[in-house]
Structure formats: structure tokens, C-alpha cells
Amino acid sequence: MTKIRALAKDLGRQGEGARDLHSSVALLLTQADALMGAKRATTDALLAPLVGDLLGPFPFFGGGNLPGGLASELGDMSKSIERRCTQLEACKKLAEQGYRIDPVIAFSDENPPDAKKIEDALRAMGELKGKDFGSNGNRDDLEKIQKQLDGMTSAELDAFFAKVPDADFRLYGKLASNADDGSWLKWWDHNGIPEAARRDHLSRILARIGPSNWGKMKDAFPGIQPGFDTTDAWLDGQNAQNGQQAQGMHWGTPTDPLFTPGRELNAGEISQGRFADCWYISSLTATAQRNPQFIREGIKENPNGTLDVRIWDKDGNLRWVTVTPDLPLDKNGEPMTAYNRVSHERWPAYYEKAFALMYGEDDGGAPDGHQGDKRYDRTERGNYGATEWDFNKNAPPYVTGHGSESIDNDFDSVRQSFESEKRPVIVSTPGGDKLKADGKALWGNTFSTRHVYYVKGFENGKIVLGNPWGPPNGDIRATPEEYKKYFNDPQALKVPR
Description:
Elements: H1 2-35, H2 70-96, H3 103-106, H4 115-126, H5 139-150, H6 154-163, H7 166-177, H8 195-206, H9 214-220, H10 232-236, E1 250-252, E2 270-271, H11 278-290, H12 292-296, E3 299-301, E4 307-312, E5 318-323, E6 327-329, E7 339-340, H13 347-358, H14 396-400, E8 405-406, H15 411-420, E9 425-428, H16 433-443, E10 452-459, E11 462-466, E12 476-478, H17 480-486, E13 488-492
Helix pairs in contact: 1-2, 4-6, 7-9
């Protein structure tokens, strides 16, 4: 620790020296340049910008060239290392008192942990057992604990989780998740933490605790992890439309990159995976095609390995939902979820996972060939099953924050929305055995009925439609007459540019 602190101090000194060095070199080159008339004092790519850059050491005046630009950077780095050292020393003291802190958290850049805050939260959690909450319900008591936990640093929260008895935290989860208030005769009776506030609370916790405590979180609040055992893929062992196999489903964490550094996001490489949520993946892919930066900005990786995903809820409110990095995998360890099957980027899977948690409008879904079978057609919330077989207009508000616009089902209207208005567009296919047979005769297995596609463009008088199944399924190229016969319900999305 002594050597690390010495390094921090040395970086700070070097940062201070960078200002003086910059001023001296810039002054020398500027004077030389003035004396040399038409000739430049230097043509070196690194030194040339210093000519006349006498304010370089002060970035807020517009100068950010080296070496002066290092002044604030090295200073910030020095202070960060000092804070992390103080944090690590405080964590060591907590460990001596019997608290365990995940190594992922111990070197965080935050205020050092306060043992009293941890002890107070443990005491409050233990006092929930057998407590008489009075006639006004338990919400006020639970919100006090919520405030305590939300106000903790990562290290404090992780130490709390490591020590709180499983039964105590499960009780907190049970009470917080039951937000049913009393009858209208007892209007003052308020219980649990309301869903939106509870979801934000859980995300704040999950984004900070170490991986060793995620299991305790999931045990007390199962709603932070979407289930997959009600999906068609689980029940049938395959995707019913394309026949992709789905045996041996289990949770696992892929090691592929979230986004590939230095590589542009390619919407055409996204594969839907084996869940029947084409209606959502088409909206996500169409949005990524039109505005890839909007998609990049919608996922943030946290220091503990979790991910914050931007999504709008059923009431149109912007949310950042925290998810763990594990995903449903098949028996071979391949993702069951949406994925980039070319560069193996994970980002589509986490958008899909957050959507599975947040989708709030499932009422049994669109016709899926299992009408009347309650294993398939039932209202669900918070799992991958809720996202299967639904209508294309339901997805855009969750992806973009705006409802889609239903446009006329003709070639020219779709083209105008896509080309002139620069809007992502998705289209559907109706059901019917004859339509399916005729469509496959034209386009092969990339055509499917009761499916949703996204518009990729227009070429040689034809509309080009992308299949959310992704590679190796090819695009569909349809004439205006073919489009009219095989496709319907076009929706134009609104995405920030």
C-alpha cells in the first residue's frame, strides 16, 4: 500500500510539472516561429500544435495538447488512487471485524465504508421479524430500510449482504414485494414498496454488490431474474417456427464482448435466438439499423459485472434496469437469446433480458397454434415467456420510448416512411397454410407466417426485408404486388437521430 500511495503522489507531481513543461516548450516554439518568418519552427506532428498554445495547460481555456493536457489527467488519477487506497484500508478493517467484502468491490473509487451504517441496516432488517406495523401498514418501515440500503456505498452494501441472515433478507423481500394496500375502507393502509420504486431500488442494489451476493438477492427477490421455463423453447425443446433446437437450457455467463471495440454495430448480424419474440427483436434491430449510437448508449457495464439497460415501462416512464450478465444457454453452452452471430456481441441479449423483466402488457399473446392450452396461452409477467407471440405494435414503446405509427399497407407508404422520413419500419405476415407454402416457394425457409420482419431498404423496385432470425437466413426481396399479398400491419417507429 505504501508503494501504491507513493506512485499516486509521484503522478500528482508529474501532473504539476506537465504545466510548467508545456508553458516552457510552447513559449520557446512560439518565439522561434516568430523569428523564422515564413518557415515553421517545427513540423513534428506532436510539437507543431504547441506553437501559440500558451494556454495549453488550462484545458478550460481551450488548450488540451500534450504535455499540458496531462496535468489534469495525472492529477485526477493520483486522487483516484489515493481514494482507492483509503477504501481498501477501510475494507481491511471491516474484514478484521468479521465482514466479508467481495474483491471486485474492495478497490472501488468511493468513500471508505462506515461500519455503523452497516450495523444500523442489519439491526433494522432483524427488527422486521414479528413487528407490529400498526394500522397504517408496513410501507413506511420498509421505505426507511430502502433508504438505508440505497444510501450505502458498494463496500458497505456488500458487507451488509454478506452478514445479513438469509431468512431476514427473504422476509424483507416478501414484505417489499407485496404492495397490496388495504380496501377502500382502510385507505390509510399502505403495504410493500410500489413496483416502480421497488424495481429502481433493486437495480441500485444489484449494480453495486459483488457477484458472490447475487444469489442472495435472487433468492429474496426472484423478479430480478426472468425465468425461461414457460417459453415454447422450453416446453417444445425447439423454436416452433424455424426448428432450432433448445435442449438442456441452463444459466451461464458468456465471455464474448458486449460491443466489439473499433467495430461498427451491424444490425444485420443480429439473430433472434430461440425464443418466439420476433415482434420485439424486429423493433430492436430496426432501431439499431437506423441509429446504432442510440443502442450503444442504452447499455452501461457496471464495475461489478452487471449491466444497466435503458427501457421504457408500460406507462412510458424511462427506466434503467440492472441485470446480471448470465443468460439462458443450451446444452452446448450457446446462447438461447438474441445475439450477434457474426461478431458474437452480447448487447442484444441484455436488451432482451431487460424487456423480459419489464414487459407489462402480456395477456396471452398473439395466436401461436396452441390456443386454449394454458401451458402456452396465459398472462405472464417478468419472464421470457411473457415476451413470446405478441403483436408488433406493442414493442416499439419499450425500445424507443415512443409508440409506433400504423401506416397504410402499401408499398409506397412504407417506402416513404423508410426513405423520406428516415424511420425504422417493421411489417408482419398473416397466418395460413397456403400463404406459407406459396411464400416458401418464393423465398425458401426465410419466409414464415405469423412472423415480423424489418425493412432494410429498397433495391431495383423491390422492398428488402430483414429476418430477425439473422444469419444464415437471407433477406426477402419482394415486388409491390408480392408485398401486398404476403405482408401486412406496417409500423413506423420514432427514434432519436
